[in-house]
Amino acid sequence: MKTVTIGFLREDGDIQVLATLNNNDELVGERQFMRIAERVMQDLQAELGGEYNIKMFERQDAPDYGTPPEELT
């Protein structure tokens, strides 16, 4: 996987997005990327407790780049 979304399934069937990670430019190896993604998923699950079942979803539609807001430039 090169792009993942971490979140949970809502009652209406949509994904409640908590985090999106991408490694499209392969800045880290695939194993390292998956370890990072799994750690984020585990940390979110620990913070939210048992109320939500946090999962990782492979995504192809997540952006690779973005323009920062003016106050950051």
Features:
single chain; 73 residues; alpha+beta; three-stranded antiparallel β-sheet; 1 helix; globular
Structure description:
By secondary structure, the chain is of the alpha+beta class. It is 26% helix and 26% strand. The termini are far apart.
Globally, the shape reads globular
Structural class: alpha+beta
**Low-confidence runs of at least 5 consecutive residues:** none
Percent strand: 25-35%
Order of helices and strands: EEHE
- Helix fraction? 25-40%
Strand order of the largest sheet: 2-1-3
Please summarize what this structure is:
By secondary structure, this protein is an alpha+beta fold.
Q: Topology, please?
A:
Elements: E1 3-9, E2 15-22, H1 30-48, E3 55-58
Antiparallel strand pairs: 1-2, 1-3
